[in-house]
Specification:
187 residues, mainly beta, Porin, 8-stranded antiparallel barrel, two-stranded antiparallel sheet, 11 strands, Beta-barrel_OMP_2, OMP/PagP_B-barrel, PorT family protein
Length: 187
C-alpha cells in the first residue's frame, strides 16, 4: 500500500513538472501606436483625416508548447486604440478601450526569435470621445503579425502589427490599425 502511494505521488510530481515545462504563464504591457483608417471617413456630412494616437495595452499571456519550435500563445489584454480626427475647422480625439483576445501561433525561428501570427477578437469596454456621434461598434476582429524576442528564459519583448478587418464605427467607414511594442515576464 505504501509503495502504491509513493509511486502515485512520484508520478504526479513528474507529471506536474512536465506540465510546467509545456505551459508558461506571464504578464505583459506596452505601447500602442494606433490609428483608424478608411476610404470614407465622414461624420455628420464632414470629411476628416486621422492622425495616430499613442496609448497602451496590458494583460496576461500563456504560452503552450505543442512541438519543438511551435507553440500557441493566447492572451487577454486591455488595449486602448483610436485616432485623432482633423479637418480644416476642428480636431478631436476618439479613444476606444478594448478587451482583446489574440490567439497566436508562435513559430520559433531559433531559441531567441519567434514569428507570431494569428487572429484577434476585441470587445469594446469603454469609449472616451471628444465629439458627439453614435457609438462605435462593440466587436472588432483583426489579423495579428509580429516578432517575439526571448531576452532571457523569463523576460521577453514583442513587436506586432494589428490590422482591423471589421468596421470600428457605425457612422464612419473606419478600421483599427495598431503597432504594439511590449515587454513581459513569464513564470
Amino acid at each position: 500500500m505504501k509503495k502504491t502511494i509513493l509511486v502515485t505521488v512520484l508520478l504526479l510530481a513528474i507529471s506536474g513538472n512536465m506540465q510546467a515545462q509545456l505551459v508558461k504563464f506571464g504578464i505583459k504591457a506596452g505601447l500602442n501606436y494606433a490609428n483608424q483608417t478608411g476610404t470614407d471617413i465622414t461624420i455628420n456630412s464632414t470629411n476628416y483625416k486621422t492622425d495616430a494616437i499613442t496609448s497602451y495595452h496590458a494583460g496576461l499571456v500563456a504560452e503552450i508548447k505543442l512541438i519543438k519550435g511551435f507553440s500557441i500563445q493566447p492572451e487577454l489584454l486591455y488595449s486602448t486604440q483610436g485616432a485623432t480626427y482633423k479637418n480644416a475647422v476642428e480636431e478631436f480625439r476618439n479613444e476606444l478601450g478594448y478587451l482583446s483576445i489574440p490567439v497566436l501561433a508562435k513559430i520559433h525561428l531559433n531559441k531567441t526569435v519567434s514569428l507570431d501570427l494569428g487572429p484577434q477578437a476585441s470587445f469594446l469596454l469603454s469609449e472616451r470621445k471628444e465629439f458627439d456621434v453614435e457609438d462605435s461598434e462593440t466587436f472588432d476582429f483583426a489579423a495579428v503579425g509580429g516578432l517575439g524576442f526571448d531576452i532571457t528564459k523569463n523576460f521577453f519583448l514583442q513587436a506586432r502589427y494589428v490590422l482591423g478587418l471589421t468596421e470600428a464605427s457605425k457612422e464612419a467607414q473606419t478600421k483599427n490599425s495598431v503597432v504594439q511594442i511590449s515587454a513581459g515576464f513569464k513564470f
